[in-house]
Amino acid sequence: MLITLGRHVLRYLATIFVASVAVFALMRVVPGDPAAVALGVSATPELIAAKREALGLDQPLIAQYLSWVGGMLRGDFGLSLTSGQDISPLVLDRLQVSLILVGSAMALALAAAIPVGTWVAMRHRRADDIAITALSQVGIAIPSFLAGILLVSVFAVRLGWAPANGWVPPDQGVSAFLQRLVMPVCALAAVQGAIMTRYVRSAVLEILSEDFIRTARAKGLSTWQALLRHGLRNAALPVITVTGVQLASLVIGAVVIEQVFVLPGLGSMLLDAVSTRDLTTVQTIVMVLVLLTLAVTMLVDLVALALDPRTGR
């Protein structure tokens, strides 16, 4: 078990290294000189040269890479090219917003998908199974940003039940925080819930056809009892794997939702940095998103390994 765990950790450390090299290299092939971008179109060659030296851009690429990685390990994400300010506290603040949004959306999606998916699997080929399956297909087809726009037009504009956009930290008022969180969370959770419902249904249907379920029923257990006692743990493995994939995609999909609801998360910060060609900020945020995605993937693998050690072989 420990050997398998160590192998997983080493694999993800190697993946992080490759990802950091890829992000660093991609930012270096983007057209334009970061020093010239920071100083503007009226900068003289002398000023640009001095700025490149101040930013460390005159050093060899390997030295620039090691400086960037070392800074991130210390929590120093560098200076913004446009404002010259330290972006570390801003990135951490924006990260909290994105994590709250993504975590709440996935929790809501799973809270709905697990019982509904299990129920429709037990009601296979009946009217409610057909109706919910068709409804989940519609949910998959609707983009999250469109769901967000529809929620705003109905519940904010027409009914006035919640603010259309904005953000209030939880320490400044729980009620205002929840009012501004509920619609973006629902917009993200609607699509993810539809996807997860179908996966839960498929996983439970597959388990119900296994021999050990038929054996349990032959011993006198009902279908529900056999599923609860012997089936759910086995059905959880593929669902957990899919949850990891969907959670990773949810981190990226939250970028658009943050723009729709004007949330100060990493996504909106990334788009602002791209529009101003702030390559230092873009590089940092992309790497943070990569680290989040890899952390989620690793966590899912470890949970699957704990549920079934055979998955690590």
UniProtKB/TrEMBL annotation:
Its main location: membrane. It is a multi-pass membrane protein. It comes from the Bacteria. Keywords: Cell membrane, Membrane, Transmembrane, Transmembrane helix, Transport. InterPro entries: BPD_transp_1_N, MetI-like, MetI-like_sf. Gene3D superfamilies: MetI-like. SUPFAM superfamilies: MetI-like (SSF161098). Belongs to the binding-protein-dependent transport system permease family. This is ABC transporter permease. It comes from Corynebacterium pygosceleis.
